[in-house]
Amino acid sequence: MTELVFALAVGILTASGVWLLLRPRTFQVIIGLSLLSYAVNLFIFGMGRLRVGGAPVLENTEAVDPALYADPLPQALVLTAIVISFAMTALFLVVLLASRGLTGTDHVDGREDPQ
Fold first, then answer.
1. Phi, psi of 56 (to 5 degrees)
2. Number of C-beta neighbours around residue 84 at 10 A
3. Other CB atoms closer than 10 Å to residue 93's CB: what's the count?
């Protein structure tokens, strides 16, 4: 059941992110990129086995069952990706504000009408 919820969350975030990426306004493109990064983070996190209450570190090295432990590497990768995506979103927003100040519009192609 947990895998189904994760798969649905990744699918919905990916679909929403792609839909927003195809929109004509810059802010919607930034939000779409953020949703795609959240989808990728959830996907990477899910690859580390969805185990609740498992210890992340092996206590002894002789004949252990890896299914009893959580994998800490995807968790560390997702934490790093969250920090990087936050910084990139902040940079994109600054560029958006500067572009809107210079051009007076927030459309991706610079035109107000869709022609």
1. -80, -10
2. 11
3. 13
Q: Cβ(39)–Cβ(13) under 8 Å?
A: yes
Write the CA distances from 107 to 17, 22, 33, 114, integer angstroms: 17, 12, 16, 9
What pTM was computed for the model?
Answer: 0.74
The answer to whether the beta carbons of residues 29 and 84 sit under 8 Å apart is no
Per-residue pLDDT tens digits for 48-61: 766 666 566 666 66
SS3 1: coil
21 CB-side CA count, 13 A:
12
How is residue 100 written in tokens?
């809107």
Q: Position 17: which residue type?
A: G
Residue indicated by tokens 């022609």: 115
